[in-house]
Each structure stands twice: as C-alpha cells, then as structure tokens.
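Lecture 7, part B: from sequences to assemblies.

Below are the input chains for today's worked example.
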Amino acid sequence: MWFCHMRICMAETKLDLLQGTLDVMVLQTLATLGALHGYGIARRIEQVSAHEVLLNQGTIYASLVRLQQRGWIDAEWGTSDNNRKAKFYAITRAGRKQLAQDTAYWQRLASVMQRVLAMQAEGGKP
Amino acid sequence: MTSFLREALNRFRSFFHKQPLDHELDAEMAAHIEMAMEENSRRGMSPVEARRAAYVQFGGMEQARELHRDSRGLPWLDVLMQDLRFAFRTMRRDRGFTIIAVLILALGIGANIAVFSVVNTILLRPLPFRDPQQLVRIVEKDPKSGESSKTYTADATQDFQQQNRSFQSISGYFAFTGPDNYKLMGSGQPLPVTGILVAEKFFDTLGVQLAAGRLFRPEEFVKNAGPVTLVSYPFWKRQLGGNPDIVGRAINLNGKPVTVVGVLADTFDFGSIFSPGAKVDLFTPYIMDDFRDDGNDLALIGRLKRGVSLGQAQKEADELLPRLYFMHKHPEYGKGYTGQLTELKEYVSGKLRRSLIVLWCAVGLILLIVCVNLSNLLLARAAARSKEFAMRGALGAQRGRLVRQLLTESMVLSGSGAVLGLGLAYAVTSYLAHQGSIALPLLSSVRVDGTALAWTVLIGVGAAVLFGLAPGLRMSRADLQEALKDSGGHGASEGRKHDRLRSSLVITEVALACVLLVGAGLLLRSFLRVLDVDLGFEPSHAAAISVDYNDGRNAGKRAAIWQEVTRRAALIPGVDAAGITDNLPMSRNRSWGIKAKGGDYDGGKFQGVFVYIVSPGFFKAIGMRLTEGRDINWDDLFNNQNVVIVNETVARKLWPGQDPIGHIALVGGAEARVIGVIADVRETSAEENAGWQMYLPANKQFGPEGAELVVRSKLPPAALAGSVMSMLRHVNPGQPAMEFKPVQTLVDHATSPRRFFVLLVGGFAGLGLLLASLGIYGVISYSVTRQTQEIGIRMALGATQSQVLLGVIWKTLRLAFVGIGVGTAASIGVARLIASLLYGTAPNDPFTFAGMLVLLAIVALLAGYIPAYRASRIHPMIALRTN
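Predicted structure of the full complex, as structure tokens:
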C-alpha cells in the first residue's frame, strides 16, 4: 500500500507529504466520530490539532473525493443537526484497514524520527 | 492494488461527468459556508463578519474546485482536450496556413508511407512462405549465358536430391516457359494462359498453402500419369468463377482434359517472386522422365534442414555438384556443375537493396525539407502570434505549458497531414500492386500494412516535434515587454534574430533540395543513357504475336506453315516486313553450346551461346542489322541446310582477325556453316552488354520453341491487330486470342525498374524544388513586408525602383548561393554513394551538376523576384503613413 501511496504522492507534486497526512487525518476523524460532513471533519481536525495545522478548509474536499474514489469512505446526502442538507461521509471496511496500515506507518516514522533527532541532540554534546 | 484500479476507473468515470460532479461540489461547498457562518454568528460575529470569516477559513473557492477536479479526474487529459480545442480553433482561423501546411505534410508523409511500404514489401518483410529463412536458390556460380547456365538437367537435379544431406528437399521449376504457352479451350475462343512446369515437392519445399483441394502427389510425376494441374487463385477467380467444385474436375488445355487437383492460396504469386511482372495461371507436373534428353532446364530451390547453415550447405554443394553428370545416358557429355546458394529472399530482392535504400533516403530528405519548410511557416506565424503568447505568459501561463500548447498544434497539423498522407499512400500502393508493367519482385503484394501504420505514427510524431519544437521554444521565450509594446511588433534586434534563424532554415532547405536534384539528375541522365543504348534491334514500329499451329512434329510442314504465315502477314496493307522467331530479345532465352570447328578458343571447349531459331525476314522485321553475309532463306528451312548467323561477339571470339563467313561451327549437335554476322543484340537487358548469340534456320536439325510472328509497320499495332489475328485464324482456326504486343513493351519491361526509380526520385526532387522555392519566397516576402517602412524611406531619399528590386534579388541570391554551395558539397558525397546505380554517367558528371545547379538558381531567382517586384512598387508616401 505504501507503494501506491508513494505513487500518488509523486504524481501530484503540489501537495506533497501534506496531502497524505490530510488523508490519514480524515480517515482517523471518520473512524472515531462516525459519519460526518465536510465542514464537521475540517473543524474537528482544526480542534484536535489545536490550530497548529494551517488548513484551508476547501482542500478537505479534494481529499474526500480521493478517498471516496479509492473506496475507503462512502458518501451520502443527509440532514445535519440543525436541519441543513449536507453530504455525510463514513469510513468503509477497506478504509479501516487502510487506516490501520497508515497508523502503523506514521507511528513507525514518528518513532524513528524521534530516535534520530534524539541521537543528534546527544551527539551535539562534546 | 485494487484501490488503485478502482481509483483509476473512478477518475476515468469522473472525466465524463464533470457537470453533475461540479454541481454537487458547489452544493456541498455552499452548505459548508453556511454552517461556518452559523457557527461564527453563534460566536457573536456580525452577519457580514461571519460571512467574511467563513470564506477566509475556507480558502479560495475556485482553488478548492480546481483541486477537487484534479483529484477526481484526468487532469492531463483535460489539458490535452483544452489544447486540442484551442489548436483547432487557431487552425480554423488561419485557414490558408492550415491548408498549405496540411497539404505539404500530406505529400511528405504520404510519399514516405508509400516508399516505406515498397521497401518493407521488397526488402524488409520475409517472403510469404513457411520459415522463409530456410529457403535457398541454387544457380551456377558464373552464369555466362542466360537461363540455360543458371539451370540444371533432370538427371543432375535428381542426383543432387538423392546425395545431399543439407536439404529437407530440393525442387525446381521449368525455367523456359514463355507467356501464354497453353490454350484454355472449351468455351468459345481458345484463351491463352500461362502454365509453369514444377518438379515434385515444389510447393511443399516453399511451404505454399492451398485455398482448395490438394497439392500434386508423387504418382503424378511418373511418365504417362494422368494430366493434372494446380491453378493460381486469381485464375480460379477469373476464369473458373471461383467455384470450389472445380477441384476434381477437368479443364481443357491444348485440347486435352486436365484434372484440377487444387487451388493455391491467394498469397502465392509465382511471378512476383521468380519472374517479376509475369502472371502465372496454372502449374503442371514436371515429369523428369520426359526431360531426360533435354539440357539444363530446371531452376532449383531448396529448403535447408533445421540447424544447417547456408555455409555448411554451400560447402557440401561445392563438393557434390562438380561430381554430377550432365546426363546419365550420355556420360561422354561430361560432368561438373557448380552451385551458388543464396537465400531466396536475397536472390529475389538483393539486387534492389541499394536502389531502394536510395529511394528511402530521397523520400526521407523530402520529409526533412517539408519539416524545415513548416518550421519556417510556423516561425512566420510565431512573429504574428508573439503578442498573443506574451499576453498568455503575462497572465501566468508557464513556459512548459505554452510549449506544450504549440506542440499540440504541431501534432494536430502533422496528424491531419498523416491521415491525408495515408490516403495518398493507400492510393499509390494499390496502384503499384495492380501494375503489371513494372518488373520489380513482390510488387503485387505492396500494401499499407500494420508496420507501415506504425511507421506513419513514428514519422508523424517525429515530424511534429521536428518542425514544432524550434518555433515553440522560440515563441515561448519571447521577451514579454518587447512583444507587448505596441510598436508595430518587434524591435530591430529581435527581428534580425528571427530573420537569421529563418534564413538558415531556408539555406538548409535549398541545400537538401540541391542534393535531391543532383541525385535525381544523375539517375535521370543514366536512364536517358539506357534509353539511348544501341539495342541491336529497333523496337519501335515492330510488334509481335505468338502463333499457334499444329505441324505434327514435321519440320517440312512447319516450314510451310511459317512461310504461309509470313507471306500472308507481309501482304497485310501497311506491313513492311514480317518474320518468325522462337524467342524474342529481352524475353525468354535459352542457350546451347558453340565452338569453331578446329578452333582452339578456351581449349576448344563448347561455349554457352544464346540460340534463336528464326525464319527468313525476321531480321528485317525486328530491325536487326546484318553486317556481313546473307540472311537465312527458305531453302535453308525446306532443304535442311545447316547454316548459322552469329553475332559480332561470337565472330570476334571464335575467328579473331578472320572473315567468319564460310567457317564451320559446331552447334546443336551438328556442323553449321556461318553465312552471316549480325550486330550485337542486348538480349537480356538494355544495360548489360551483349553475350554470345546465334541464329539458326528452323529446320529438321534445329527445332524452335514456339513461334513469335514479328511484324514491322508504320501503323500502330492496335490498328493492325485485327487483320493480323484474322490472318492467323485463317491459317489456323484454333489460334488463341493472343495479344499483338509492341516489341517496345519488352524493352519497357526490361527498363521498368530504372524507370520506376527515376520517376520517383525525380518526382521527389521536383517536390523538393517546389518546397525550397516556397521557403525562399516566404522568407524574402516576409522581410520585404517587415522592411516596408525602411524601403519607403530609402525611396523617398532617392533610391530608384531598380535599386530596390536588385537589392531584394541580391538578398535572395545570397541565400540561394549559400544553400547551393553547401548542397553541392553534400551532393558530391552523395553522388559517390549512388555511383553503382548510374549507367554511362560519372558520379561527378559536370553537365548534370551544372544543369541542376542552374535550375535551382533560376527557381530561387523566380521565388525572390515576386517579393522583389512588390518591394520596388512600394509607394513611399503610403509606406511611411502605415504607422
């Protein structure tokens, strides 16, 4: 799957790594919160990241359509809490599998990065 | 991986549902904004503030849409479609340019596809047989006199078949069949058809397929076997109505029923491989026992065993063939053959390789000239469009995107040209394939096939890149400010740079055209030399027809028939002379041995000599020149006088320094007295020097192989055909409807390959010249337009019209001369490469060079004169007012 991930990353140079990151965030949000519309997902990510991520909310839709085309999420028009028509997205089984893989990957990467950076800090001392 | 496939599929689907998807996204985004506004209001913002904040959080709506489209669809295809739409729009607007460009491209690409198809058919594609690389042709190593020395006797063939270990099988065909050697009877007038005798396993050796029925069986090659035949596919379609029930039934050949055992596949064209230009209708078994007493008459082919190389087979043949006897019955005739093994494909088309490669290069040059020309046209257009592109650059288009757009335009142009060219090539190839008069092998199977289509795509794309890239790069690099300034287009420096590029393109074009012209000129001069050759006979005003008769194998009766036919033919109004021969020059040939009685030329051995059995009056009818002695007379025929007329070559070789008249020659198993000497006749082709020839009276000793009545008359053959035919029918009611053919057609047939190449290369040279002149015209005309103001000022200051005229013409000539200079240098090299294709013309023939260069200069002058004239007519007032 990583291979495929890579390929898409390479095909669209504009967003680079951020795009893959956003996809994982969206999947994780949907996995924990259940069906949600685009605005809700965007707000949730902003809240969780404590506004550290500068997110143009509009870019979430490109991510959503991509995930949908890969069959990792489903979409359906429905009504929001305050009676507004909105498109609701939900994670699929394939999506959960993908999320598990991505989670493992990110955690591995994060721990490796941590170790590498820690080593540098140690080596910095004479 | 499934998700990847699913995505690809979905992207593809989205590409065709843009509108509904966009609508849905818009609805979704609208909902998003409203929800955001609601939340912002709840936090206490004013409605206006809430709205603004919602939009800020969202980011650009349009960017989000673009991103969405890129993620879900096929962005590259979108761009391509956009580029294509734009390209078509531009092309429609510039209709004149488009038509010219597409036409030029169609000519260039069409010519390339057509030539490629010919090259592919003759040179590249394997022969249409099973495992064709195993097939070899076996001929004597040093064939001195025509077919007879390229063939083998029945006995030698059989020995070779039995004793070799290299071949799966060896077979052959009877090499001395003339056209129309059978009469197909049974329905009205007897119809002349051509049948070839083939030895056992001939078709198995080649691996020929059947359309119906079966091949010959071994028992059909035994003496007195029931007569059978295999018919060719076209003959079956044409004469037998394509009826599959014909297999097993009999057709009437020469009055005898012959059973049709099968129909050969459509793909098998005997003539196109073994005898270019000939049509063969049917095949009958060559029964060895019927030919034991004859001389060499089998042309041999063989199929190598798997794993046996040509070299190994050659080695074996070199050991084996010298041991083989000429005839078992007559061991005293001696033994000793040689055999040169050549891959069949190489044998058939090897001689043409160089000509075809030259043709291919010539047509490649044409494409190059076309590209240079188009590059030039596009550059001229680039000047006109520079503002458009500068504007698009200013609006944010990237350079790569602009180049891509321009390349798309080139591709569209070249694609249209290729489609049109394909049509052109299709027409040309189907014309060539149905052309019987060009003696090139395999020509009948020329067609635009898959390989040619691939070639088309290749050269189409190649051409587009070639002619589109330079203008594309140049245009996309244009200086923004310079181009956008409204000062009549360009600053002086940019214009000059532009001019320099275009000038060098024109010089290239002229140089390429020069090479083509010189090459074509040399080939044309060679062709004229060939036409000018003294053939030893006069084909014009002579025509021939094969005569059918039944002499009951009686020489006296035959002489009487021949006399009657020639006498009656000479009486036809308008006929000046008539005579009969068994073989016409440049047609079928056979050879016997000759030696001077008591002579010691080459150790007193028999020498191969072309033999013609003739009637009195034949020489006069065909226009051969008796240089000494007398013609054959009827007494020689009726009273079996063994006399012979030899050609000058034989006279010179056998009786050097003597008068050959009265000497005795040993020919055809008899002693014959030399009664005359005839000027050498080119018997096989116009280009090869005459070999040894002799002419014998058709008497008891010297039997003819068929009879051709030759008639000399000032009237056109078509006008005589009726009376000649009715005369022949009067003598023999069974005379089939043979064609009364001008003898010139034989010569034309022999020279047709050269004619073919000259016509094509000449045509390409003409096209190159036209394109080069177009290029010159374009550049000069453009520079005149650009300098209108300058010229106006000069004229206002006192320059005369002729000064302006000469100035522009001088500029043209300068371009042309540089091009001609470069071209001449290149031509000298090229001419050396094609030296072996020339005839009687030196590769540095000064007349050809001078002629072609002058022609090129004149055309360049004409191309420059038109804009020069226009320049001289510029009115200073109007010119100065334009800006």
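Note for the exam: Chain A touches chain B at residues 1, 4, 7, 12, 37-40, 42-43, 56-59, 61-63, 65-66, 68-72, 80, 82, 84-87, 94, 98 (CB under 8 Å). Keep this in mind when comparing with the next example.
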